[in-house]
Design brief:
The complex is a heterodimer. By secondary structure, chain A is mainly α. Chain A is built from eleven helices and two strands; from the N terminus they run ααααββααααααα. By secondary structure, chain B is an alpha/beta fold. The chains are: A mainly alpha, B alpha/beta. At the A-B interface, helix 6 and helix 7 of A face helix 2 and helix 3 of B.
Chain lengths: ~290, ~270
């Protein structure tokens, strides 16, 4: 039993790390522009498909697809913000962004089905079935790689936000857009780059997901609920809040799988969402922590 | 050729969207090294003047001249380069960033690191609280301290004119006095200030020149001490009672209520 719990804890932490990366972009969009990006998980699955297609076409490790998908997704994000989201009326931006990005999610899903059919796909790598023993528990190497990718990406995101001029401008724009503009920050441009950054995290997250998941075009509906729950529990707009919530919920899900099985364990996200909305609608890690990075 | 005035707003007409004009032929001039204050009732267009001056709102007609150069229609980034810095009303510090980060962001458009460092030392010297709370989170500071951080941030670009929008808003009388002392220190440092303030008496006591706005026009312009002595103005805008020593701790009453419309503008005194 102890070995089982140890294994669940380790897997939960690894899963939480991946969730943290997947949710980082989602909370960034909201922080920068008050946009609820329903299509985020569809972009994750798109990135997963591109990693799979890259691996199938070249035989090279799918991680190398990031060289192309990260800048591509960044550009897509900038274009989306500039030509679609920035055209929405500020007064109804949040609600209309739900409709707009819902439509984008459907388009991506339809496109994936059209190009690669609805057949389930899975990347097969030399290390797909390999595992390592960590504290007596057997952990799949692909999960460790996905966690490593998430950890490195989140660290890079943290450094970008804290130690660069762009990061400071982005945080200033999130916290007080008008004051930021009066300091000479081009807040529209910064918001566009912020959106691109969010989508770039989807490229990395999707590739990490592809290493260890069977993918199909409608898989994004399975993901968007838990990711939304994570950013609400963490406090909308708070990247560290989302990271903490992701780790807590990932760990809870993993532990609950022991008595409840995988299907019921998934309900922990919705339970946490309902409790948060009832008890602390601003999120458990919002408030002073919100918008801070 | 440089003008005697660092900032000139000439015959400005401006409004928001398709709505009616807020400013209707307004003219305001800010000489070098002086504090000019705009007073008037709510809705007179005081804050709109600053938005036009800093490029946040484009005028529909009229001209904006900074140090002799016509900059009409320029946006906020361009206005900063021309030497204008705008401090918003209320609190506009980046609360989840440190004082150091807030002040550094003030020099966002300055690429010369040595110049930035020089300005940091300058503002630390001018506003000791900035130096004292350098590593603190800006949101953890008191209202008056936050306002001083905003002042310091606005001075990082070595502005010729600082636009201050109701710096005493939401502050207690004692803190208001501290904030106005900092406005005086800015003037002593050679920086011109265009000040919008609800607390008209306190603002006129600080300023060199006063402008009384109503319905989007300047009705009276003159040396601030003279305006303070004017019994009609005192009745309409300064809470009545004629000129008197106005310690904000004793008389914090703002002149916020709409005045009776001035039927005929008083002559300009300058």
């Amino acid at each position: 039993m102890t070995a089982l719990i140890t294994q669940a804890v380790i897997l939960g932490i690894l899963l939480g790390g991946l969730y943290a990366l997947l949710a980082a972009g989602l909370t960034l969009y909201f922080g920068v522009m008050r946009v609820v990006m329903i299509a985020h998980s569809a972009f994750l699955i798109l990135a997963a498909y591109l990693a799979w297609a890259f691996n199938r076409a070249t035989g090279i490790d799918p991680l190398f697809s990031l060289v192309a998908t990260v800048p591509l997704f960044f550009l897509l994000g900038v274009v989306m913000q500039r030509f679609l989201l920035s055209r929405l009326k500020p007064a109804t931006l949040t609600m209309m962004s739900v409709l707009l990005t819902f439509a984008i999610a459907l388009i991506i899903e339809g496109m994936l089905g059209f190009v690669w059919t609805g057949t389930q796909r899975r990347i097969s790598l030399s290390y797909s079935t390999a595992s390592l023993e960590v504290f007596g528990a057997n952990i799949a190497v692909v999960k460790l790689v996905a966690f490593g990718l998430a950890a490195v990406s989140l660290l890079a995101l943290y450094l970008l936000m804290k130690a660069t001029s762009f990061g400071q401008a982005l945080r200033a724009t999130i916290q007080h857009k008008e004051a930021a503009a009066l300091l000479g920050i081009d807040t529209e441009k910064v918001a566009g780059y912020g959106f691109g950054l969010g989508l770039a995290t989807a490229a990395i997250g999707g590739t990490a997901l592809a290493l260890d998941s069977t993918i199909y075009p409608s898989l994004h509906w399975h993901w968007i609920g838990p990711l939304m729950a994570i950013i609400v529990v963490g406090g909308l707009g708070s990247i560290p809040g989302a990271a903490i919530a992701a780790l807590v919920l990932g760990l809870s899900q993993s532990l609950l799988q022991i008595p409840l099985g995988t299907t019921w364990a998934q309900t922990v996200f919705y339970l946490a969402l309902f409790i948060t909305l009832m008890v602390r609608p601003q999120g458990f890690f919002g408030g002073r922590l919100a918008q801070r990075f | 050729m440089a003008s005697d005035h660092l900032l000139e707003l000439n015959d400005i007409e401006a409004g928001y969207g398709r709505a009616a004009l807020v400013l209707r032929g307004l003219t305001v001039k800010v000489p070098a090294g002086s504090v000019v204050c705009l007073v008037g009732p709510n809705g007179a267009g005081k804050s709109t003047v600053l938005k036009v001056a800093s490029g946040m709102l484009a005028p529909r007609s009229g001209s904006i001249v900074v140090d002799g150069e016509d900059v009409t229609g320029a946006g906020p980034q361009s206005m900063i380069r021309h030497g204008l810095s705008h401090v918003l009303q209320g609190h506009s510090v980046f609360k989840e960033m440190t004082v150091a980060e807030n002040v550094s962001l003030g020099a966002y458009t300055v690429k010369d690191k040595a110049q930035v460092q020089e300005r940091v030392e300058f503002v630390k010297n001018l506003f000791p609280v900035v130096a004292d709370r350098w590593a603190a989170l800006a949101g953890a500071l008191s209202g008056g301290q936050q306002k001083q951080v905003e002042f310091a941030r606005s001075l990082m670009v070595s502005p010729k004119v600082v636009l201050l929008d109701e710096p005493s808003m939401g502050l207690d009388p004692k803190t208001t006095s501290v904030v106005f002392e900092q406005v005086v220190r800015m003037r002593e440092a050679g920086i011109a200030v265009l000040l919008v303030e609800q607390n008209a008496r306190r603002a006129l006591e600080t300023a060199d020149i006063g402008c009384v706005l109503d319905l989007g026009r300047v009705h009276i312009t003159g040396p601030a001490p003279e305006l303070l002595e004017d019994p009609q103005l005192a009745e309409l805008y300064l809470g009545g009672g004629g000129a008197r020593s106005a310690d904000p701790a004793e008389d914090p009453t703002p002149s916020g209520a709409r005045s009776p419309e001035l039927s005929s503008p008083a002559p300009e005194r300058t």
